[in-house]
Amino acid sequence: MNTIHEISSRLASLCGERKFVEAYRELFADDAVSIDPVYNNEPLTGLHNLIEREQQFLSRAEIHDIKISDASFAGSYFTVVLSMQFTVKGQDTKSIEELCVYKIDKGKIVSQQFFIG
What we know:
Layout: H1 4-16, H2 20-27, E1 28-35, E2 44-45, H3 47-60, E3 61-68, E4 72-74, E5 77-88, E6 93-105, E7 108-116
Parallel strand pairs: 1-7
Antiparallel strand pairs: 1-2, 3-5, 4-5, 5-6, 6-7
């Protein structure tokens, strides 16, 4: 079973390499939930749906730079700060900084929630 420290380290590594879909496939539970302010904080449930939404974003976006902070831990949760500069087709380049909170259960990420600063 993966520990919370191993999961957070692997997530940071995959995201730093821009392997977002691989991160979902490897680290997330089948019934994982995502809450994202970009999507009106409406919970999205199911690994298949999370991967599909990520693939749609990646098909429209060019990521120029990404940075991920060291993780902080509390019980079964960890958090990182993700900073990213990207361009969505037909739009201006954007820079975001978001707090990403993950919950681990049985060696998998079962929920993620993003707070954009």
